[in-house]
């Protein structure tokens, strides 16, 4: 089971749920969503019954990692590996601040990697209607990276000290990054 917390949060925002409205305030400012909200969301998803899962974007702080440890112990689920994808700050800003989304079909474009060339929207009605999410705007991206350095970067040592950290060079070609990641995922039994 793949759990991308960013996708889960954006879906809650789009649906206008209480969680979504609360999370939107933090996401728009480039801040972390409160731990209790994130841990509760993960518990709900993992409690549905699975023995294999991939958490994408969680944990993002040492307290979240501690809460995840307790949650996984409570559910009897092991944590096999933590993958850290290393990318320079300048490259992260370039990648994140260049994203644009079509309001109608949800397709994602990028100013450098996947530019929009005026294609017709697959949902009909003419050309794609592009917008940039608040959390992809350059000033928000810079704030997100500052929050990362302060709150998330300590997880590297947290998981390294437990022998779980696997590092990947994220500035390589996408297929090479994927190949590196796959080598760190334990085979299913």
Q: How would you summarize the topology of this molecule?
A:
Blueprint: E1 2-4, H1 5-15, H2 18-28, H3 35-46, E2 54-56, H4 62-75, E3 82-86, H5 89-96, E4 99-102, E5 108-110, E6 130-131, H6 138-152, H7 154-160, E7 165-169, H8 174-183
Parallel strand pairs: 1-2, 3-7
Antiparallel strand pairs: 4-5, 4-6
Helix pairs in contact: 1-2, 3-4, 5-6
Protein described:
The chain has 189 residues and is an alpha/beta fold. It contains eight helices and seven strands. The chain has helices spanning 5-15, 18-28, 35-46, 62-75, 89-96, 138-152, 154-160, 174-183, and strands at residues 2-4, 54-56, 82-86, 99-102, 108-110, 130-131, 165-169. A three-stranded antiparallel β-sheet has the order 5-4-6, with no helix packed on it. A two-stranded parallel ribbon has the order 1-2. Strand 4 (99-102) and strand 5 form a beta hairpin. Helix 1 (5-15) packs across helix 2 (18-28) and helix 3 (35-46) packs parallel to helix 4. The longest helix has 15 residues, at 138-152. The radius of gyration is 18 Å and the shape is globular. The chain starts with a strand and ends in a 6-residue tail after the last helix. 11% of the residues are buried. The model has no long low-confidence stretch (mean pLDDT 88).
